[in-house]
Amino acid sequence: MKIKRILIAEDDKMTRIILRQQLKKWGYDIFEAENGQQAYEILSAENPPSIAVLDWMMPEMSGIDTCKKLKNDGQNQTYIIILTSKDSNEDIVEALEAGADDFISKPVNSAVLHSRLNVAKRTTEYRNKLASYAHEMEDLAQQRAEQLVHADRLITIGTMASSIVHEINNPLSVISSTNQIFTQYWKKLEPLVKIAIENNSEDKSFLEYVLVDFPQMTESLKNNITRINKIIGNLKRFYKKDSSNDKTQYSLNDCIKNSLDICAAKIKNNVRVSTELDNNPLIIMAIPHQIDQVIVNIIVNACEAIINKNNMKNQGNIKIRTMQENNNAHVIIENNGGAIPQEILDKIWSSFFTTKNEGTGLGLSISMEIIKAHGGEMFVENLPDNINVRFTIVLPLIEK
Hints:
Elements: E1 5-9, H1 13-25, E2 29-33, H2 36-44, E3 51-55, H3 63-73, E4 79-84, H4 89-98, E5 102-105, H5 110-198, H6 204-239, E6 248-251, H7 252-262, E7 271-276, E8 283-286, H8 288-310, E9 316-325, E10 328-335, H9 363-373, E11 377-382, E12 389-396
Helix pairs in contact: 2-3, 5-6, 6-7, 6-8, 7-8, 8-9
């Protein structure tokens, strides 16, 4: 709604001409009506003038009746000034209660009219700002509601993951026990297989295959069981609800390894991860699952940025380094998923800010709070190539 658009509703032609000349001189875009019905139609249409000067007495519909009808509609935000020769207190009250915003007596004084219109412009500007702010707040409230619902789903998923981990443990124990039995059986079968091969058994080629591959398969099965157990252990710790939240000594190098295990399903063929871990374990005082949560969040975000950028066609890279500088440990995570737009770079730490359709806007905000609670700092920057993004986490090492 443009502030400089104004309606003159006046049945007297000469008065309209005089008002028109004054308003044009003051830079207004002018609409005109000869009666109240025309004025109502203009003001109730889409995108009406922001200010209206209505004569009280007009044919078909008076200025007061026009105000009342617009007020009953409840939609019009036009600032209305009633123009009349009436000037009693009762008349002023009637006009204002009908829905008018101001009242000018005839004959119209040019200076008074100009000042009243300036008040109208300021008031209309404030109204528009408030309406815009209210609309933004409604949208924001809707977004927050949706994000909180999604956050609640994440909490539910975390609870479910904990239950699923528990359920996986049972069949995994059976598989592990079965593999141990296979290994024991093989110790007794292996000599018999060798004897059969030496005696040129009809199944010699098959037995030679079994002799070589069976131990490799059982060893591979054992290694994968160990790996699954490790992932389950990390997941249990990751979703664990600590009541004490006591800090303990924790190696950042172990944190990186554990986090990569947790993210194994997210790190697919199109994402290659390289690590360069400090020779020292980099021991910090921490709540381990919270630090894991920060690293996991950054790795997952990096994977999603790479997938979105490359559309699953080209391989992306994530580089993770740990290093010691003075009494601090540094974790540096870079990905080539594309630079973060400069205008939102400082906003990514804000609660509920997200550029993802399904995002909650909580991950990085919570991560920053976790790092601060551990006495550390976290930074993000776009590298000069405008392709790689670098996250740096700085945490205090245990004093020796």
